[in-house]
Amino acid sequence: MINRRAWVQYSAAWAVVAGLASTPLMASAADMAPDAMIKQLSDEVLNTLKTDQSIRGGDVSKITSYVDSVVMPNVDFRRMMASAVGPKWRTATASQQQQLQDEFKKLMVNTYAGALHQVSNQTISVKPVRMQAGDKEVVVRSEILGRGDPIQLDYRLQKTPGQGMGWKIYNLNVMGIWMVETYRNQFQEELNKPGGSPQTLIESIAARNKANAGK
To answer: Of 59, 112, 117, 136, most Cβ neighbours within 10 A?
Structure first.
């Protein structure tokens, strides 16, 4: 039986991969409703996690390759990173902003890769979204079912400009804890140190990634 903490870790792992590594929607489906989009992505990702032994085993290089090939169609990763860094994001150079995104992605992949082998017979239940015509931001609520109590897993999405661009994920909520806010609290500790800056944050995250890779 997987304990509660492990389930939270698994849920976060699934959320990151669902958001950052799911197969891009076909162009004809780009303007589907946000809850329908999340349901399609969820089903595709759970199927991949159940059948791809390398990903299930936590193969970081395989997961990273999977993420790299399809991340942009489904996630506003720049907004996610800017929100996590906070006001000092605007003081970072274009090069530093890209480095922060690269290191942040590595951090998430490395942090959650080890939990993916716990996926077995889980299913996803996506609740109908409540929105008004013309809404540009929504919350899609869902639950992971299959072992123990249901796991709350919610998504914040925004409608991207341009015909056919569809919805993009910019935050994830696992059991009441929003991922971006969690990382923001961690990053502020580094940024608020004497001499703290986007560059020192890059170096801090890179050091964590190096330590994780050495485990």
So the answer is: 112
151-181 confidence digits (pLDDT tens): 888 999 998 876 556 888 899 888 888 989 9
Entry pTM: 0.78
pLDDT digits (tens, 9 = 90+) for 58-117: 787 777 776 666 555 677 888 999 999 999 999 999 999 999 999 988 887 776 666 666
Please report how many Cα atoms fall inside a 13 Å half-sphere around the Cα of residue 145, on the Cβ side. 8
Under a CB-based contact definition with an 8 Å cutoff, are residues 6 and 120 in contact?
Answer: no
Are 14 and 49 within 8 A, CB to CB? yes
Q: Is the pLDDT of residue 141 over 60?
A: yes
SS3 track for the chain: CCCHHHHHHHHHHHHHHHHHCCCCCCHHHCCCCHHHHHHHHHHHHHHHHHHCHHHHCCCHHHHHHHHHHHHHHHECHHHHHHHHHCHHHHHCCHHHHHHHHHHHHHHHHHHHHHHHHHCCCCEEEECCCCCCCCCCEEEEEEEEECCCCCEEEEEEEEECCCCCCCEEEEEEEECCEEHHHHHHHHHHHHHCCCCCCHHHHHHHHHHHHHHHHCC
